[in-house]
């Protein structure tokens, strides 16, 4: 039975739905900005890790070098997009 | 909703288009029934998972879209030919330049590039198919669903009219109340998902499925360029998908991401669009660089000069492409710090690109050059692309950019980059690899006539736009008065556009002529080329390689020809092949309908289609499909037939 029913994946799925609902809750509970952003950031980090570990099998490869290269590139693009946007739209805006 | 709102009405040209769509569809249906080709179409094409067939379908779709976008271009050029023309009104002109841009970039350049990738990459690395053949078919049908959804907008509902970049607040519900921009948002989301899956598919294929001995630094340059392109796709396309989803929420579900009030930020759209949009430029141009590298080295009879620096410069372009997007909106109000930063990064891209240009020139140096049609496109590309690149550096200077931002100068610049960079690239690739798929070459004489018409027409059409831009003619203006003095140069540009169009007609006529008259049986290697794909018989059998090749050097096939080292050894073995499937095609139809219903905010049918999509995913999850085997005996028989009994 354990082989037939993928408990880990179903739990992961349910948990990712719960995290999405919590994030949606920020809108409905009418929180202040700090509390809202804190909840969103925490949810986002857990959500991303959940997807990577449970569904994308990160770390199950023997080739650590390509894994780290991938992560570095992903972090590079993410950081550039987020901080670049803040730079062009807010900090560096006249 | 009234029928008069559903269909676009009031334009004689649109009525003509409707009639011709109905007539052509009827002709296709009647023709298929009359010649009893329904079964053939379904079994051999619509359900295929063979990378070569999928590639061919991509290229056919891209050529059709080239003509659709080309007619848009001719309509614009006709309207601008003389002062105060009354050919198109302002609204119609807006719709035409929007669809021209979207179609040429996303539904012509992208599928053409992806089509050539599909045809060539597995052959070039010695693989029997891509890593996920079924997913590849899904990618194609998602792209096709998106393309069709976008194209029907001009007879049903009205086309988007806010430019291909769809800037907010113009593209918001407030200023573009028709469903046009809903089509934009949904069609691009659907085809974008397909592109993203292609990206993953090809990264896995290239990293995991190379023939034994083909190390990364032994890969053909086209394979390298495609690997890097697909990495850019995987990292850039999610940004577009998210931006389009937010746009859809804004336009259909009443959210406020890009509005000017309630905490929305209209400029964030332009920002997100170009975070994807600038890497996108490199997504369509890098594969062309790879194609030119292979072609120039083949027809100079030399190995590529500076292989390592080619790879390094492409990696540099990949990283820099994510650092330059703000140069698209220098004039939007950013401070000197921001504009200065992005000026420098933009100009830095000219360095690796320059390295590549010099590598191509040094490859040609002292080569034994033969001027075939693909080589002519490569030769035309180098000087024209350099003009495009240099004007790009001019535009990169933020303070100077205030002078020609959004003028015809910009329009001339990006056509000077994209047409030689992408269009010449894919046309060269198409002429070059055509015999591999179909077993005969396109006629050289017709091919060269088309090339000369295209290159002359192109320069006559776009060179005047540089000067018009410097004189102050802005892009996207639908008419001008005689006193501006823009008339004569515009007339020249229009003449050039029509010459360009004749060139494309000759190019397509060449398919017909060559199909009728080209000599067959030229063997698997008509160009005396260098890479693995030419070691297979033409047309390539469904399994590509009867035996897996063994690679010892760069340019593996050339090495094996010159040094007499056999690529293939051992006995024939049975080959495991994936089964065809109708599911990707059906999923494409479902996604098309889902998008169509959402465009018109018909939520009940849209929800039904969403449920059908989930059911199809579940169906696929529980399906058991182990493919089939081609027996060793059958493989041997096919090979003997295709190669003669010598092998």
Automatic annotation (TrEMBL), chain A:
Enzyme class: oxidoreductase
One annotated Gene Ontology cellular component of this protein: cytochrome o ubiquinol oxidase complex
GO BP term (any one): ATP synthesis coupled electron transport
Coiled coil: none
Catalytic activity reported: 2 a quinol + O2 = 2 a quinone + 2 H2O
Transmembrane segments: 12-29, 35-55, 67-93
Protein keywords: Cell membrane, Membrane, Oxidoreductase, Transmembrane, Transmembrane helix
Recorded topology in the membrane: Multi-pass membrane protein
One MF term in the entry's GO annotations: cytochrome bo3 ubiquinol oxidase activity
Primary subcellular site in the record, as a coarse category: membrane
EC number(s) given by UniProt: 1.10.3.-
Compartments (UniProt record): Cell membrane
Function: Catalyzes quinol oxidation with the concomitant reduction of oxygen to water.
Family (UniProt): Belongs to the cytochrome c oxidase bacterial subunit 4 family.
The name this protein goes by in its record: Quinol oxidase subunit 4
Natural source organism: Paenibacillus pini JCM 16418
Automatic annotation (TrEMBL), chain B:
InterPro entries: Cyt_c_oxase-like_su1_dom, Cyt_c_oxase-like_su1_sf, Cyt_C_Oxase_1, Cyt_c_Oxase_su1_BS, QoxB
Membrane topology classification: Multi-pass membrane protein
N-terminal signal peptide: none
The keyword Acyltransferase is assigned to this record: no
Listed CDD domains: Ubiquinol_Oxidase_I
EC number: 1.10.3.-
GO BP terms, alphabetized: electron transport coupled proton transport; oxidative phosphorylation; respiratory electron transport chain
UniProt pathway annotation: Energy metabolism; oxidative phosphorylation
Gene Ontology, cellular component aspect: plasma membrane; respiratory chain complex
Reaction(s) the record says it catalyses: 4 Fe(II)-[cytochrome c] + O2 + 8 H(+)(in) = 4 Fe(III)-[cytochrome c] + 2 H2O + 4 H(+)(out); 2 a quinol + O2 = 2 a quinone + 2 H2O
Role of this protein: Catalyzes quinol oxidation with the concomitant reduction of oxygen to water.
NCBIfam families associated with the record: QoxB (TIGR02882)
Protein's UniProt name: Quinol oxidase subunit 1
Phylogenetic placement of the source organism: Bacteria, Bacillati, Bacillota, Bacilli, Bacillales
